[in-house]
Write a structure and sequence with these properties.
Number of strands: 14
Bound molecules: guanosine-5'-diphosphate, iron/sulfur cluster, magnesium ion
Largest sheet: 6 strands, mixed
Helix content: 25-40%
Radius of gyration: 25 Å
Mean pLDDT: 88
CATH class of the largest domain: Alpha Beta
CATH superfamily of the largest domain: P-loop containing nucleotide triphosphate hydrolases
Distance between the termini: 22 Å
CATH topology of the largest domain: Rossmann fold
Low-confidence stretches: none
CATH architecture of the largest domain: 3-Layer(aba) Sandwich
Structural class: alpha/beta
Number of helices: 15
Shape: elongated
Length: 413
C-alpha cells in the first residue's frame, strides 16, 4: 500500500452538512477512529485525509471535510477548504443527515454532476429518520446511486462500499497480471487449445490471445498445441516447459499428460486473477464440496449469449455440480446485467469468465457475495473442482491453493 504514490490513489471526498455524520461514516468505512466525531457542529475544521486499503479498489484516500454550510469567518475558511476538496476528488459521498434533503444537498449534487465527478448519495441516521421515499425514487430514476444507512450503528456500510466500487472510475481499480509474473525471459510456456465444435471458426478466443500477448511482452516463448498433441510435444522439447496452460474443458487430460514436476493451470484460472479476486474465488470453490442436495446455486453470466445444446454454464456445470452433491440442486441462471441484489438464498454463486465484463464489474459482484457471506467461484475453478484437479491447477498460486484447501476443509479464512 505504501508503494502506491499518493497521486495515483483514488481520492474519495465525504461531503455534507455539519452533523450529518460524515466523520462517523468515514470511521465506519475505515473501521477505526481516525476522524474526530462530535455532536458539536463544525469540529472538523481542516479536511482529514486518511489512506486506506479498500479492497478491491486498492489504496484510497478518504477526505473527511467540514460541513459546507458553515457560518462565520472561521466557517468561511472551512467552506473554502472543503470547496478545494470538491475540485480534486475522483469520487464523492454526499451524506444527508436527519434534516433530510434540502437545497444544500441539491446544490452539492448539481456541482458534482457539473464536474462529472461520480458520487454516491448516503441517507444517514436511518435509526432516527426514514428518508422520503419520493426523493429516493427520484434519485434512482435519475440513475443516481442511493444508499440508506446508520453510520453510528454500522448498518449499510457494506452497501456504501459496493456503491463506491460501482461508481469508481475504471482506472481507479488496481490492475492485475495475467501470466507475465509467472514467467521470465526465455521461458517456455505450452498452451493447450482444443479445437472442437465449440471453438469459434478460424480464430482463437480472447483469453488465449491475451495470454499469448503477455507471454510475448515477457520475452518468453510459447508453443500452441491441441490436447492430443500435448504428450508428443512435451517429449520433443529439450527442456521442461515452465508452465502448461490449457482450456478448462480438457483440464483432466492435460493434468494427466503433464509430468507432476511441470506446473499447469487453465486459461480461466489465469483470467480469474486478471479479472477478479482470485483468492476469494478459490475460497468460494471450496464450498462446492459442501453442497447438499436441495441447495440453491446461482449461475451468473455477464452476457446473454445464445445458449448451446451442451452449454457449459446452463447444462454442463449444473449437471456436474449435481453429480458432485449427490442429488438435485436448484439452479438459477441469470444473464447479462441481471445479478440479484440478494444472494443469501444461494449456497454458491458460480460466475462465468466475464469476457465481456470489466475487472471492476467482476469485483463488484464478488464484493456483493462476500458481504452477504455467500461463497462465489467461477466456471474455470468449478470445472477443475468437479474434475478433481483444482489443487493442481492452483499450484502456481500458493495463496489461492491454501485458501481453497482451507475452505474445502470447512475452515474459515
Ligand atoms: N443516531 C445517529 N446518530 C449519528 C449517526 N451518525 C452520526 N451520528 C451522530 O451525529 C453527530 C455528528 O456526527 P459527525 O460524524 O461528527 O458529523 P459530521 O459533522 O458530519 O462529521 C454525532 O453525535 C454522531 O454520533 C447515525 O447513523 N445515527
Ligand atoms: S464467459 Fe461470460 S461473458 Fe464471456 S461469453 Fe461466456 S457467458 Fe458471456
Ligand atoms: Mg465531521
Amino acid at each position: 500500500m505504501l508503494d502506491t504514490p499518493k497521486g495515483l490513489r483514488l481520492h474519495i471526498g465525504i461531503f455534507g452538512r455539519r452533523n450529518s455524520g460524515k466523520s462517523t461514516l468515514m470511521n465506519a468505512l475505515i473501521g477505526q477512529s481516525v476522524s474526530i466525531v462530535s455532536d458539536q457542529p463544525g469540529t472538523t475544521t481542516d479536511p482529514v485525509e486518511k489512506t486506506f486499503e479498500l479492497s478491491p479498489l486498492g489504496a484510497v484516500v478518504f477526505i473527511d471535510t467540514a460541513g459546507l454550510d458553515d457560518e462565520g469567518v472561521l466557517g468561511e475558511m472551512r467552506v473554502k477548504k472543503t470547496r478545494e476538496v470538491l475540485e480534486r476528488v475522483d469520487l464523492g459521498i454526499v451524506v444527508v443527515g436527519a434534516e433530510g434533503l434540502g437545497s444544500f444537498e441539491t446544490d452539492l449534487i448539481a456541482t458534482l454532476r457539473e464536474k462529472g465527478t461520480p458520487f454516491v448519495v448516503v441517507f444517514n441516521k436511518s435509526d432516527l429518520v426514514t428518508p422520503a421515499p419520493d426523493a429516493v425514487q427520484a434519485f434512482k430514476r435519475d440513475g443516481l446511486e442511493v444508499v440508506t444507512i446508520s453510520a453510528a450503528q454500522l448498518s449499510g456500510i457494506g452497501a456504501v462500499k459496493e456503491a463506491l466500487f460501482r461508481q469508481a472510475p475504471e482506472g481507479g481499480i488496481e490492475d492485475a497480471r495475467l501470466i507475465g509474473d509467472l514467467i521470465g525471459p526465455g521461458d517456455m510456456v505450452v498452451l493447450v487449445v482444443p479445437i472442437d465444435l465449440g471453438a469459434p471458426k478460424g480464430r482463437l478466443i480472447l483469453p488465449q490471445v491475451q495470454t499469448m500477448r503477455d507471454i510475448l511482452d515477457s520475452d518468453a516463448v510459447s508453443m500452441i498445441v491441441k490436447e492430443r498433441e500435448l504428450s508428443n510435444a512435451l517429449e520433443q522439447l529439450k527442456n521442461k516447459p515452465k508452465l502448461v496452460v490449457c482450456d478448462s474443458q480438457v483440464v483432466l487430460k492435460v493434468a494427466a499428460d503433464t509430468p507432476p514436476d511441470v506446473r499447469m493451470t487453465t486459461f480461466s484460472i489465469l483470467m480469474s486473477r486478471f479479472k477478479g479476486d482470485m483468492l476469494k474465488l478459490a475460497e468460494g470453490a471450496g464450498a462446492i464440496s459442501r453442497l447438499q442436495p436441495g441447495d440453491r446455486v446461482l449461475i451468473a453470466e455477464t452476457c446473454s449469449h445464445h445458449s448451446l445444446a451442451d452449454d457449459i454454464g446452463r447444462v454442463k456445470i449444473p449437471r456436474w455440480l449435481r453429480q458432485f452433491a449427490g442429488g438435485n440442486l436448484e439452479v438459477d441462471v441469470r444473464a447479462g446485467k441481471d445479478f440479484p441484489e440478494d444472494l443469501t438464498p444461494y449456497a454458491l454463486v458460480v460466475q462465468c469468465g466475464g469476457c465481456t465484463a470489466t475487472r471492476k464489474q467482476m469485483l463488484v459482484r464478488q464484493y456483493r457475495a462476500e458481504r452477504q457471506g455467500v461463497p462465489m467461484t467461477n466456471y474455470g475453478m468449478a470445472i477443475s473442482v468437479v474434475q478433481g484437479v483444482l489443487d493442481r491447477t492452483l499450484e502456481c498460486f500458493p495463496a489461492a491453493q491454501q485458501a481453497y484447501r482451507r475452505a474445502a476443509a470447512g475452515e474459515k479464512a
